[in-house]
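Trying the structure run again after the queue cleared.
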Amino acid sequence: MRFIDVHGKTPVNTPVNPSFPHWQPWSDIRWQAWLKKSNDYKKALCLLHQQGDLVARNNFIDNHSAHWGELKPWLQVLSLGKCWFSESKELFSHYDVEHFRPKKETKALDGSVKDGYWWLAFDYTNFRLCANVGNRKKGIYFPLHENSCVSTYDNPREESEEAYLLDPTDAGDVSLIAFDEEGKAIPQPSITEWQKQRVLETIKLLKLNEHESLAEERRKVWQKVTQVIADINATKDKLCQPGNPAAKEKYRNHCVTIKAFTSQEAELSTVAKYCILFRNDPQLSRLITS
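Done. Tokens:
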């Protein structure tokens, strides 16, 4: 999981990216039309909800799923083509536009089911890009802390809910996850018990360790970065010797490799980043691309 900065971003102000030739920013007219349609759909849902026809309400959501599908290319550009939760490109299968807060029903840890966040069904701020391995596993799960307030249509307060699921658009949430040399996602050391519970439930709900090929690719990234670090350390010793331009060039190339592994464009870059931070070497840490 890597932080996705969505603050203030829309399909209108997201620029062309050479890596995504299919993406073209929307015109303001198109965006305003999309937002109007979202608002119209929400009004229709409110009416059906007031009438008590929950079946028709949920069917309406399903029948208009193409609306949020229109934003999938934009969500891909925001994450540079990576799943927002696993940070993989194709390892985790195809992408879904995932509703962070489930739109029709929600399930707690004990399996109990209650009404979902239907009023957010067409709200783009509730959309996340998730490969369907994780999205299928998560399903309608959105457990809250037992003492959490619960947002409702009549009293919306999503920002005050204490959710188990980590949100990739929240930098604080993203910082809670670490990785080990076996390619497993783990809780960051020295976090609170509640934060640890959140990490472990997120890993389970999204199948972040259960999907073997994903964990294996993380392990390979860790091994590759470990080898580059060893090469850097070996080359640093040679830099102390005068008249050794070859060592300086090798050191520079190794540093470039580290930057490539940790760049935002790189698949599983957070694994590479944590592999470096794990060494607690200030000189290595400075090489990490923000």
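The first strand starts at residue 95 and ends at 99. Worth checking whether this holds up in the mutant runs.
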